[in-house]
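ARCHIVE CARD
SHELF: 3
SLOT: left
DATA:
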Amino acid sequence: MNGQGGNGGAPTDVLDEIDAELEPWWRPIAGLLADGDSGMAAVFDAHTHIGQNDPDEQAQTLVELLAALAPLHARAAVFPMHEPDGYTAANDEVMAAAADNPETLVAYCRVDPREPDGGAVAEARRCLDSGARGIKLHPRAERFGLDEPAVEGLVQLAHERRAPVLIHAGRGIPALGRNALRLAGEYPDARLILAHAAVSDLAWLWCEMPSHPNLLIDTSWWSPGDLIELFTLVPAGQIVWASDSPYGRPLTSAVMHLRYALQAGLGVDELRSIAGGQMERLLAGEELRSFDSAPGEADHLHPHLERIVSHLTAAMGAALYGGEKSELLSLALLACDVEADDENADLIRRIEAQLQLATELATEEDPAIRFPPSLRLNIATLTIARTPAAPLPS
């Protein structure tokens, strides 16, 4: 395979093939998002990276990011990947990228709150004065908690500038929700965004969200249970769509996350806010729009879909953490055996075709690739199986 790119070693041409496979699923969602004047869907990705030195073995160039956003005509917030040797040069690179692509990119700086002598706050101030619009913090990569003294200084700076602070809130960290609530309450003009569906704290945090309207959650996650809970429990005005590119592909992530929003019963206004409207308001320093929580799912899953979802969820969990997945994927394929007159036959036929394509891709993949294309396609297919209330391709 050619086209080896900066997507953790995943071949770019195969990722493009997956985008093409999922584009028909994007089209009806884009139609719901379309602006009446332009006919275009207004989409803003709240979480993307560029950089080449991350110990996580992920990398992405500016050219690759722009190419990944292009199928959606999306804008994006962009910041450095993990830079073990410091962020000054990487922040300058990101700000230059945004300055060269102002219609597409908005720069955030990334800082390490453990920098001595107030270095993190000084670097964030320098970047905000130089064109950056927000701050990225990564408690797992930099090994700090939100009770780190410099974090409060950074949130205070964001409060003064009415700027966003995006915070890793996924795997590999202790709970951070209580400190996030405290900071959101003390600095109401800072907009704190907890990444990765706030899975570190979502189990209880959702019930505190309405009283902290400047605390938001981004969608950059994959698990069906977490995402259904996010869209059902958290008010739509406090959710923003995000891909985590290059870990997630923008088109794949948009199909996944907005289908979950529709499955949760959200309407077009809420969908447009999540897809990009709220991020545009946030970055303009405007008041954020508020919505009620979603009404929830209208129907239980069809038994065939329930089995497909169960097997695929187990398979993807195993794959992400180094376990055996082939038997579970085989069970998911067996669950696709339905009669032609079944009410979900068309949906399940499409699911089966995508599972078979993923199986074919897997035979040619380098096992050293952490997030191979087949895994990405299977996660998207899992989403499609879990969201039958969202529209089919025409």
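SLOT: right
DATA:
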Amino acid sequence: MIKSQITLKQLEALVAVVDLGSFRKAAALLGTTQPNISNRIAGLEESLGTILMHRDAGSVRLSEKGKTLVAAARKVLWEAEALLEAANRQDLIEDRMRLGVTELVACTWLHPFLRRFRSVYPAVSVELEVGLSSEIEKKLATGQLDLALQTGPFEHETDGALPLGTYPYIWAATPEIAAKLGPTTCLATLVKTPIQVHARHSLAARALAKQAETQKLAMDQIVYSNSLGASLQMAIDGMGVSLLPAALLAEALAAGRLVALAVDWHPNPLEFFARYSKAKAPRFVDQAARFAVETAQAHLG
């Protein structure tokens, strides 16, 4: 029998060191000290009678045996979570999930998603980061995030990617501005009035700039904002026309504070995905991605 010679904490330490590349980062992730991580790895090596990794100055390299055993360690940790799921005791899983989301998710269905996750995994803390999709993707690719709810396109591939739905853009303005523009209008007319759009490097802003260049239109009335919420408020305050995701504008449109405009050009819709490393992520991250799919679909109707 294995008895207490090998523990889940030792396997968690091994996987964390491998994924993060350092004992210090693994200690921070697991909420312990670097000496504790070193002791767990050393104890595991002693129990198995083999060297799992070579510790060089500033780096950690798996031995050939370590490469084989770290894959087995992941399977053990995954199945340990599966055991608790089968017993309906996910409350016994104590961990943390580093979650990155775009502002559109944060402004729409993030709260019901977090409520769903916490109802199942109450002992898993969530570290939330809200930012541009490009920034979130970089952190996911470098192992600084466990799960990203973000838009494509992507520079880095990942083996876990679940589609969350499509979010179209619409043009909108206050009823007063809409009345002046008329029932239908064109981009050439809109660029003569202030246009509220997301950050300069967002997909919509880049698409708008490209279209304006194609049509040889002036761009001096474009108002960029790193905050979708600020862009929305400026539109509601009558500071111009907005080009924002329909999901963000839904409440203002329903209340009559804004009116949708019929315009001859729109950027491509946003395609959202729940992205994570299926090969490396804990089982609860995989489950969180599936909760995101269900929550997003419910929000989209």
